[in-house]
């Protein structure tokens, strides 16, 4: 009886972890968020090369920022990073993109990379385009910051914790950063 119970518990734990029949995640390939199925037939990897907007039905981007590669007009917003949000306004992925043109006044972006939106712990937030690396501003950085710290409202910056990535402007892909090198501005600082 205990053997049967152990097998049943192991099966339930595997299902809960999403591990039944699943291959290990390859960090170079985007993978779908649990419970969210993209409408593109090839999954999240199929978003690479897609030009947005428009986004597939049930998705949009609520947050993002320009990532420049120089100071002339064509370079200031040559790339962008942002969220892919579902119909319930939950961020499920982060994307990198290069400018693909304009439709009237609206920029259109060709997606060059997609990574899972990180799971956050209590007090954590994702900072997009408001961070520094070793003291130098870098609009291509996305990081988790812990805002549940003493005197949070008075702080100018928060240290990144657990996870940070930077858009490589040449390849258009996200690369991992050591969070200990990253500080992000307090976007809720009084008076701003």
Detailed description of the structure:
The chain has 192 residues and is mainly β. It folds into two domains: 28-117; 120-192, no CATH class. Helices cover 10% and strands 39% of the residues. It is built from two helices and 13 strands, in the order αβββαββββββββββ. It has helices at 2-17, 73-76; strands at 51-52, 59-60, 64-67, 79-86, 91-103, 106-116, 124-128, 131-133, 136-138, 141-146, 157-167, 174-176, 182-185. Strands 7, 8, 9, 10, 11, 12 and 13 form a seven-stranded antiparallel beta sheet that branches. A hairpin with a 2-residue loop joins β8 and β9. The radius of gyration is 19 Å and the shape is globular. Residues 1-41 have low confidence and may be disordered. It comes from Lysobacter firmicutimachus. Residues 21-42 are annotated as: Disordered. Keywords: Signal. This is Secreted protein.
